[in-house]
Write a structure and sequence with these properties.
This protein is an alpha+beta fold. It folds into three domains: 95 residues, OB fold (Dihydrolipoamide Acetyltransferase, E2P) (Beta Barrel); 181 residues, Hypothetical protein af1432, CATH 1.10.3210; 29 residues, no CATH class. It has 14 helices and seven strands. The strands form two sheets. A five-stranded mixed barrel has the order 1-2-3-5-4. It has a two-stranded antiparallel ribbon with strand order 6-7. The longest helix has 25 residues. The radius of gyration is 27 Å and the shape is elongated.
């Protein structure tokens, strides 16, 4: 067993441990020297890492999705942990216990698989139950379904995540179908089981999570339709209208055309599947964002592009977590170099002072590209503009 895991790293401690390389970039300092910017991870999370010295000796010895042994110092930089690597090497396959490096569901996959088969066995419609049994009995589909993540990184992005997501949706679907008398529970559950089944081929999940060639070319919706069509060839009595409903739920489960659905949901079960799927994925995304956020202090996470917001760390907030820390000094010389290289150059000419009484006048809020703005510059009033609204997050 590896030690320490990412979740066990402590600031201002020199550590020696092994990680999976999630990303690798070779960058250049202002001096022209090269440094490595890495994202390293294991089953408990990720840590940002930099190697500032002796980079030429190791930079070609490993790549993304390789396993590396590193020795370095963990420090806090810009309110986040950052590992400064002193030494590193690529690891041999014989040194690796894969379970240490890949996040996985907390639930046992065989137990979840048994739950799924029980749900399918309880479906009353013989045609729908026959289709699902044919799919889950497939010796190639079954092991992939038990192992696949539900996404590359947004939600349920861990081994067994797809199965966990489907079971969560099945629980929600049963409650919703019992609440709405016009919803066919068997049809809704069929959509739940099949809507993301194409992800077992869309994604690679042997090392890091990435898209397969088939996933890049077709996407999981088209792959799922092809899988259903393959099984229906062995079910000649399956009603064609029912087939159209099943296929429509797969096609429309993203809910909107701009989100990748070729069709909008056009009957109650399809619409309900979309909203339940969207809710479950967003709730898991927020849970993961809060639990894995690398901000050391403060009550809010970093900005999440999938959710388009930051999230509140409710427990820390209720326990008096306080405000985010003030800007602190650079943690190490390499960090100072990186920050300096990213900083914008100062303006060549300072903005002239202006009468405060003029600052609030709307006359002087003219966009700088107009002819009148040029006259303002000549009059020494350039830069007298209302303050920009405060940008949150």
């Amino acid at each position: 067993m590896k030690s320490p895991y990412v979740s066990e790293l402590e600031p201002n401690r020199v550590i020696t441990s092994s990680f999976l390389v999630h990303s690798k970039e070779i960058r250049q300092k202002k001096t022209g020297e090269l440094y490595l910017s890495l994202m390293l991870g294991d089953r408990t999370g990720e840590v940002d890492a930099k190697m500032w010295d002796n980079v030429a000796e190791v930079m070609d010895s490993f790549d993304r999705d390789d396993f590396v042994k590193v020795k370095g110092l963990l420090q806090i930089f810009h309110n986040r942990p950052q590992l400064t690597i002193h030494k590193m090497r690529r690891m041999d396959e014989s040194e690796i216990a894969y379970a240490d490096y890949f996040p996985s569901s907390a639930r046992d996959p065989e137990e979840m698989w048994g739950d799924l088969r029980g749900i399918v066995a309880g479906i009353g419609d013989p045609h729908l139950r026959g289709l699902l049994d044919a799919m889950l009995d497939d010796p190639e589909v079954a092991p992939r379904f038990r192992r696949a993540p539900a996404a590359k990184q947004i939600h349920h992005a861990y081994l067994g995540g797809l199965l966990e997501h489907v079971l969560s949706l099945a629980t929600l679907a049963r409650m919703a179908a019992g609440h709405y008398p016009n919803v066919d529970g068997d049809l809704l559950l069929t959509g739940v089981v099949l809507h993301d089944i194409g992800k077992i081929y869309e994604l690679n999940y042997e090392r890091g999570f990435s898209y397969s060639s088939e996933g890049q070319l077709l996407g999981h919706i088209n792959i799922a339709l092809r899988m259903v069509a393959d099984k229906l060839r062995g079910l000649p009595d399956f009603p064609e209208p029912l087939r159209a409903l099943v296929e429509h739920m797969i096609l429309s489960h993203h809910g909107q055309l701009e989100f990748g659905s070729p069709k909008l949901p056009q009957f109650p079960e399809a619409l309900l599947l979309h909203y339940l799927d969207d809710m479950d994925s967003k709730m898991e995304c927020m849970r993961s964002l809060i639990e894995r956020d690398r901000q050391v202090e403060g009550c809010f996470t970093t900005y999440n592009t999938a959710l388009e917001r930051v999230a509140l760390k409710k427990g820390r907030f209720l326990n008096g977590g306080g405000e985010p820390p003030r800007a602190r000094a650079m943690a190490h010389p390499g960090a100072a170099l990186e920050a300096a290289s990213a900083a914008p150059d100062p303006p060549a000419v300072p903005v002239p002072a202006a009468d405060p009484a003029l600052a609030a006048h709307p006359l002087f809020a003219v966009p700088p590209e107009t002819d009148f703005a040029d006259k303002l510059k000549q009059a020494g009033l350039a830069g007298v503009r209302p303050a920009a609204p405060k940008q949150e997050g």
